[in-house]
């Protein structure tokens, strides 16, 4: 019997983002992508949700008023 780790997929605003390093936590992945998507700095992480044989995490932008 072989145990394979689940493949993680990340998404933000309809865009699929590859798992840049399976050893990083979802929070660390979010921090890494926040250089490209600055709004991720305050985003929440939903998931994981099982989709087939993958684990899907979604970065959800915080909604609120400024000021």
Textual characterization of the structure:
The protein has 67 residues and is mostly beta strands. The chain has one domain (7-60). It has one helix and four strands, in the order E-E-H-E-E. It has one helix at residues 26-33, and strands at residues 7-12, 15-17, 44-51, 54-60. The protein has a four-stranded mixed β-sheet, covered by helices on one side.
Compile the SSE list and pairings.
Elements: E1 7-12, E2 15-17, H1 26-33, E3 44-51, E4 54-60
Parallel strand pairs: 1-4
Antiparallel strand pairs: 1-2, 3-4
Shape: elongated
Integer count of domains: 1
Task: Please outline the major beta sheet.
Answer: 4 strands, mixed
Radius of gyration: 13 Å
Strand order of the largest sheet: 2-1-4-3
Question: Residue-averaged pLDDT, rounded?
Answer: 90
Order of helices and strands: EEHEE
Helix content: 10-25%
The helix/strand class is mainly beta
Can you count the beta strands?
Answer: 4
Structure annotation, total helices: 1
What fraction strand?
35-45%
């Amino acid at each position: 019997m072989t145990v394979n780790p689940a493949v993680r997929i990340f998404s933000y605003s309809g865009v699929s983002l590859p798992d840049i390093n399976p050893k990083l936590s979802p929070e660390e992945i979010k921090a890494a992508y926040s250089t490209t998507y600055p709004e991720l700095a305050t985003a929440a992480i939903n998931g994981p949700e099982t989709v087939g044989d993958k684990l899907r995490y979604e970065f959800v932008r915080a909604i609120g008023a400024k000021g």
